[in-house]
Structure formats: structure tokens, C-alpha cells
Specification:
The protein is mostly helical. It is built from five helices and no strands.
Length: 135
Amino acid sequence: MTDVAWERIEPLLPQADGRGRPWRDHRQMVNGVLWRLRTGAPWRDLPERYGPWQTVYERFARWEADGTWARLLEQVQVRDDAVGRVEWTVAVDSTINRAHQHAVGARKRGPQAGTNWKIRAIRRHVRPSAAPAAD
């Protein structure tokens, strides 16, 4: 993370309240989280330069739960949008979902009461010339 980027987000991060052990450097943790998100690697593969992977993950999870990441993103977007540095683009997914061919036209409530649905299904699929005599 560049020094300019760090100067923008550092004031938005939680500060230690003096209770318990001192926190590891926030910048080191944020860089570890960014590395993990950028690479998609498992947390256990986090390079040692970012500190213990458990510590980085715990801070990531804690900040996700308390809304720190959401506030950080919102503040950065609002600031950048105010000076025209954000280009808002809408992406539309063109994925098509279709029902399986056997699902088309199926009854939604099961067979009608009082009918023998197996015989009706068989008669539908029998050719007219081979159809049994009328009932």
C-alpha cells in the first residue's frame, strides 16, 4: 500500500483502547488482508512478512463484523466521488438460466384426484395406431 493511500485510510481505522496486549501495526495487517484478497490464497499461505496468519484473519473478521471495512469503503468512495475520481459502471450478468427439458409443463400439485396417472401417461406416449381399445 502506498504512503498516500495509507494516509487516507489510517484515521478511519479503530484505535487501541489501552486494554490488553498492544495491536500489531494496522498497515501490516491491511497489507496482509489485501494480499490474501488479491491472490485468493488460503489464509494459512499468508507470507510471514504480514505477521501470523491467525492474527491477520482475526483482525479481518473482527473488522468485518463491526463494520470497519464497510465504513472504510464508503468513506473512500465518497471522497473519491466528490472529486470525480470514481466512474460508476453498471455490470449486467448475461447468464441464462433455463429449466430442464423434463421440467417444462409438469403439474405443480401432483396428479389429479381420482385419476390413474400412470395409465394416462402411458396412453399419451402410445402411437394412435397401436392405442388400446377405448374404455
